[in-house]
Amino acid sequence: MSKPNSMIGRFFYRIWKTVDVAGRLLIGLIAITILVFMVRGCVSGPDLPKVSDGSALVLNPAGTLVEQTTYMDPIEEVIADAQGTKSPETSMYDLLDAIEYAKNDDSISVLVLQTNNLTGAYGGISKYQDLREAIEDFKTTGKKVIAVGDWYSQGQYYLASSADEIYMNPQGSMMFEGMARTGTYFKSALDKLGVNVHVFRVGTFKSAVEPFIRDDMSEAAKEANIEWLGDLWQSMKKDIAASRDMTTAEMDNFIENYLEILKANNGNGAKAAVESGFIDKLISRAEFRDLMINQVGLNDKQDSYKAIGFKDYLKARRPLIDMPSAKDKVAVIIAKGEIVDGRRKEGTIGGDSTAQLIRKARLDNSVKAIVMRVDSPGGSAFASEVIRSELVQAQKEGKIVVTSMAGMAASGGYWISATSDEIWAHPTTITGSIGIFGMVPTFEEPLNKMGIHRDGVGTTKWARSFDVMSGISDDLKEVVQTNIEKGYDDFLSLVAEGRGMTKAEVDAIAQGRVWSGEDAHRLGLVDKLGDLDDAIDSAAKLANISDYEVRFVEREISPTEQMIREIMQNTEAQASMQSASHISAKTNPVIHALGQQLKEVYNLINNYNDPNHAYLHCMCEVK
Questions:
Q1: DSSP codes joined into one string, 388-452
Q2: Membrane spanning segments where (predicted)?
Q3: Across the chain, what does the average pLDDT equal?
Q4: How far is Cα 209 from Cα 433, in angstroms, rounded to an integer?
């Protein structure tokens, strides 16, 4: 990178050089650390965790519950964790596997839910519901489930309410705020800056572009949002009320009159929660340790109760290698995150990389059915079709394709699902959003005010029809809008084909509108309501196989990446790496913070990479 001449250029050049030097120093420290632990690893391998008889299995999810954890370079992950910049995630399948193993494990006597570090669930509440169902199944063995928390957010309590006993710190609190869909709107700010946002869309309810063309939520968007939010909220209330042996009317009374209830208890939210029947007992951390010691006994260190965390428990119980077998297989492919063109690692759906996973399952003769587990708000229209066409090819070659919708399978997430042999959704899945939009910002006005102008020549009227610094020609606007309308027509056609409906029938429930899984089932957009296991069972029946195994098809990890991961999982290695990364963080904290912000902006822009600037996105995350 050569040194620029402009003042602004020199400023960013200096920032880049500072980051570059700091990065080189950090890489040097990392390389030394890795070398040390590679040598140690050759001398002695790690011992598997011990599961003592009568232990409590502690489920303590951190961060966001996800279908698939977002890929992060192992070294960067340790550094980010040490610097406090990591956004933690917990795989729902790790929790489900731990519960399933513990169910019939005589070494586990009780399940403890610790929810303090749980911040939410990607895509909606279906992941809480899957865990609640697994916990209910665990309880059929007669083993107790205990929940404990310093305080409870709405989502934390939803999970905790499935326990036999719920404890909370005397200084804690809990309340139900309901569900909302809130957006940030930029129209006035963009107008002041002179930025022209050129929007192309089809669909009355396709509100993904509203933040750039309005200062508030449209009435159409409010109408659609409140309906699916209401379905999710009613489902959550019904589940909690059933678990706590109360009615939804009693819950509503607590929510609507919370201020009065709080005042009646002298502002003591913890006491109010107990008296209203949501918490069984207020207990300090020390008191909870004593309670559990009485139930399961002391641990080897004699400083707490006998327990094992779910991650260590999985290391002890989960097979290290999936041994190949001659059985027929149902392949499960997870498609989680935004859909973008090209190749991506876990946490984002790359059109090419996801198609490659499907192709791998398609070319495996032992795979008789493919289940796509979709958890996505959508994204690139082109990438969505790359994925769907690969699924269609699998169907042409005789394989059954079933979609299992997780928290979200909307817009592009619905596009890739629409022509499956069967579609399953949770009642609380966010789906639909059958619509398409294009959006291109141009900056000619602010640049002109700064005295910066663009001019030139071209051999045709299209040669200079689009330039982010000089605008979009009227003819090109018509071209883009025509393409968007064609894309919407294609969307209607493939849904009509896949669902056995007419285009007019699809159009009546499309228009970019988001539906809950329950409504989508009623409207014919999904076939059945159920979870992933239900979808897998159904796929096997459609493929006429009974003796089969389930195989998750995932990206193959390189030997180098696997080696680094194993090193990083070593507790001593993590401590050394974190110490090294703290040195870097303290050296340039401002540059580090700036780098994180720049990275977030880059990731946002990088995800909008459709070659035709056409997007299938619902912008329907629940807040």
A1: HHHHHHHHHTT-EEEEEEEEEEETHHHHTTTTSSEEEE-TT-EEE---EEEEEEE-HHHHHHTT-
A2: 21-39
A3: 85
A4: 13
Rounded to whole angstroms, the Cα distance separating 320 from 48 reads 11
Which pair of structure tokens corresponds to residue 593? Answer: 């913070």
Residue whose structure tokens are 């102008």:
453
C-alpha 497/C-alpha 262 separation (Å) is 55
Task: Using DSSP, state whether 97 is helix, strand or coil.
Answer: helix
Whole-model pTM: value is 0.82
Q: Is 22 helix (H, G, I), strand (E, B) or coil?
A: helix
Of 271, 212, 96, 198, whose CA–CA distance to 443 is shortest? 198
List C-alpha distances in Å: 51 to 109, 300, 310, 455.
11, 11, 11, 72
Q: pLDDT per residue over 550-588, tens digit each?
A: 999 998 776 666 665 565 555 444 454 444 444 444 445
The active-site residue out of 55, 103, 161, 206 is: 206
Query: CA 564, CA 567: separation in Å to the nearest integer?
Result: 5
* Angle of the 589-607 helix axis to the 7-43 helix axis, nearest 10: 90
Residue 206 falls in the annotated catalytic set: yes
Q: Is 86 exposed, middle or buried (0-12, 13-18, 19+ CB in 10 A)?
A: middle
Catalytic residue among 243, 411, 417, 581: 411
